[in-house]
Amino acid sequence: MTDRPQGLQIKVKGIVQGVGFRPFVYGLATQLHLTGWVRNSSSGVDILLNGPNEALQAFLDQLNTHPPALAKIDLITSSPFPAQNLSNFTILPSLVEDGQFVPISPDMSICADCQRELFDPSNHRFRYPFINCTNCGPRFSIIQDIPYDRPKTTMSGFKMCPVCEKEYHDPLNRRFHAQPIACDECGPQIWFEANGTRLADREEALQTARQWLRAGKIIAIKGIGGFHLACDASNDAAVIELRSRKKRSDKAFALMAFSREIIQNYCEVSPAEADFLNSPQHPIVLLEAKPNAALSPNAAPGQASLGFMLPYTPLHLLLLEPAADFPEVFVMTSGNSSEEPVAYTDADALHRLAGIADGFLMNNRPIHMRVDDSVFRIIENKPYPIRRSRGYAPDAVNLPLSVQPTLACGAELKNTFCLTRDQYAFISHHISDLENYETLASFESGIEHFKQLFRIDPQLIVADLHPDYLSTKYAQELALRTSLPLIQVQHQHAHLASCLADAGWSSLEPVIGLTFDGTGLGTDGVIWGGEVLIGGYAGFERRFHLSEAPLPGGEAAIRHPARIALAYLSHFGLE
Ligand SMILES: [Zn+2]
Ligand SMILES: [Zn+2]
Questions:
Q1: What domains are there in the chain, each with its CATH number?
Q2: Do 52 and 206 meet the contact criterion of CB atoms below 8 Å apart?
Q3: Do 144 and 138 form a contact (C-beta atoms < 8 A)?
Q4: Residues, CB-to-ion distance under 5 Å, ligand 2
Q5: What ligand is nearest to the CA atom of residue 112?
Q6: What are the two backbone dihedrals, phi and then psi, of residue 22, each rounded to the nearest 5 degrees?
Q7: Predicted-complex ipTM score
Q8: Which pLDDT value is given to residue 569?
Q9: Degrees (nearest 5) of the Cα angle 393, 42, 176?
């Protein structure tokens, strides 16, 4: 009785496209001798299965417990379906449904399989700087629109060669429908240029960049979500020169080394930190510096910790590949002059970084969306984001409550914005400080891009209480123009509410919220800082707070917290 074929239809929602989901389903179904089909739709993945009940259950078990590495399943629904008389399992063309959306995978660092192939002389993609597969490579930074198919990415201009095309269409290949699939024959290429002259192509370009780096020069490198400025981190003169050209007086530079073993020569790396450095996101992790490490003292002046990341693209791996007399740690800082957003288009980089970089390692894969490196600190084995961007954006926070489509415009410094739909809160990549025209333009275009990608038509606008933030002014103008309601939220209350959402707090019961983070305009018109709030999503009461003290230099004190400490000491008559 139980062996009689039964039908089952399954719907999977979440990050299930562009992550090898259909080949996974295809492989699993054929392995279990199930017939039926799988297809992408505008809202997720649809599966229809026919077979004995036991095999159907085994399929569901595997789907729940061992989905593809980059998949992020939010919901699996299944229901019985009349058994169909099908002879095999197939992958059907995508179904386009109006107004629906699928969460998009962030950009992911090169996977172990691709890394092996990159350094395997017998492989078709040996030393190819843009090798990728369904488990790794660019996503968010190259997607122009949904559904996520190659024609709607910046890879649309590259026609696949027969080798790539065959892999792309083979359901059992790990590059099946890998939209950025490419090889040396058909894909993007690198070149090296300086002063407007193209000096070298392909492998020779890579070797030229390495020689220039070894010689202490500053190189602009086009990566996955923007340009980096790189130099030998052990070369003090090069680091000082970069600092002065970038007009970045004392902020620490991010560093990159080929392997964890090398990083351990410079920093203490706990097992949790090592795992996190090597996670699929490959963020910058702040690590405790070892004394007397052979680094330029100007890489991170006065800092007890260093921000290290591992190479996260094949290009970075090739560029940093260890060799005799080759430096082992590189400054890999954002490609901008201080305060400006990171350059990500070729023309912009060549223009804005001309006075900073001696040479440019370029490539012709366009970046559609700028994404900065993410920065984390590990505290008691748990990761805490300091900047949540590459590898994380545009991942959604799953809200404990369903909310109406909302645009939240964020604050002034280290801005991110957020758009919500159903139970998803799509938090943007790091936009940076909204203080100049370029950053504001990138804030505005980012909002438009998110609205388009996730098919969100906001019905409510939210802004900070502070009237002078550019994000508040933007929200007010937008509300006027669209007649949408605008809610202005007190800064520390917003911190409290976002912590609750992040923790999945679904109750309307009040909590005690300690928000000691920068400054924000209070409901009494005074700047607030360290607050103990009692409240929840809808409201709060200010129970305790640090006593008020003057902010020496006004806004400047926010950037130099030591000034605030001094003000408190003097306020209480201490010296
Ligand atoms: Zn891969
Ligand atoms: Zn190819």
A1: 6-91 (3.30.70.100), 106-187 (3.90.870.30), 190-363 (3.90.870.40), 396-489 (3.30.420.360), 508-575 (no CATH)
A2: no
A3: no
A4: 161, 164, 183, 185-186
A5: 1
A6: -65, -45
A7: 0.99
A8: 79
A9: 75
